[in-house]
Design brief:
By secondary structure, this protein is an alpha/beta fold. It has one domain (about 1-290): P-loop containing nucleotide triphosphate hydrolases (Rossmann fold), CATH 3.40.50. Helices cover about 45% and strands about 15% of the residues. It is globular, with a radius of gyration of 20 Å. It starts with a strand and ends with a helix. This is AAA domain-containing protein. InterPro entries: AAA_dom, DNA_Partitioning_ATPase, P-loop_NTPase.
Length: about 290
């Protein structure tokens, strides 16, 4: 089972569009078993997949999985794009299990021994890789791998470098990272910041490998400024021991139209230039992964 994470803290670069397009083409064209994990509380992936969760809904989501209240299979929604583990706007609130909640403190403040015992037990929990929050998604995905339920897992991260992004980067011991980006300065700077974050996480766990599979240039136009920054990206990719994908996703009006129609670009307009680019890029991904 291959796990791919689409990530960049800069919003609007086509991260969710690319994740959904890859999943749709893998599912519909290549007949692969695909799981999409939505880690973005904005829930754009859920909308594109045709499975939006109304605000305030009690439908189980990744929020419940991250808290440890549900297993992944408990929240699955079947879509034409693949099996979806939907997000929730409540994920904005999740910063991990506290060492001591206010309610626990109020119940135990009159008993110092019981209070210290609670703190010891909670500290043991949050620092144990078999119980802690930061590795919970990894443990869930390992269960999926043991059950041989999926060929590919595609994780759509949120557009920042906060706690949810860290959880996404720690979701698999041999993670493949795809970085959608524009051929412009702001994307270049964002990639450098992300690269620093990835290296820090790898240094903290020598058994973890976070491989940057490549930079995917989106909304690309064959104009001088884009060609200029593409060369920058090529040099930066070489220093990071990765690549700029050969396939670029050309700027195409069908992409925002598909978003407005709450569909992925492949399902919405297969003959569009963007959809054809995504199909060629999927072939490139499969060749790299040997799939």
């Amino acid at each position: 089972m291959e796990v791919l994470l689409f990530i960049l803290q800069k919003g609007g670069v086509g991260k969710t569009t690319s994740a959904a397009a890859l999943a749709s083409i893998l599912t519909q064209v290549h007949k692969k078993r695909v799981l999409l994990v939505s880690m973005d509380p904005q829930r754009n992936l859920d909308i594109i997949c045709g499975a939006p969760i109304p605000r305030g809904s009690e439908q189980p989501s990744m929020y419940d999985v991250l808290k440890g209240d549900k297993h992944l299979e408990d929240i699955f929604v079947q879509t034409d794009v693949g099996t979806l583990a939907p997000a929730s706007n409540l994920m904005y609130q999740w910063t991990g299990t506290p060492l001591l909640s206010l309610e626990e403190y109020r119940n135990l403040c009159g008993d110092p021994d019981a209070l210290m015992e609670q703190l010891r037990a909670r500290y043991a929990q949050v620092t144990d890789p078999m119980q802690d929050d930061t590795h919970r998604l990894e443990r869930e995905l390992k269960r999926m791998a043991e059950q041989d339920r999926f060929d590919y897992v595609i994780v759509d991260s949120n557009p920042d470098l906060g706690y949810l992004t860290t959880l996404s980067l720690l979701c698999w011991p041999e993670l493949k990272v795809v970085i959608p980006a524009f051929a412009e300065e702001s994307s270049r700077e964002a990639i450098l910041e992300l690269y620093d974050t990835i290296r820090v996480l790898e240094r903290q766990d020598f058994n973890r490998r976070i491989e940057i599979l490549g930079f995917l240039l989106t909304r690309y136009e064959n104009v001088r400024i884009h060609r200029h920054y593409e060369k920058f990206m090529q040099r930066m990719a070489k220093k990071m021991n990765t690549r700029v994908f050969s396939t670029h996703i050309r700027k195409c009006v069908a992409v925002p139209e598909a978003m407005a129609s709450k569909q992925d670009i492949w399902s919405y307009a297969k003959s569009s230039t963007a959809a054809q680019d995504y199909a060629a890029w999927t072939d490139e991904i499969l060749q790299l992964l040997g799939g």
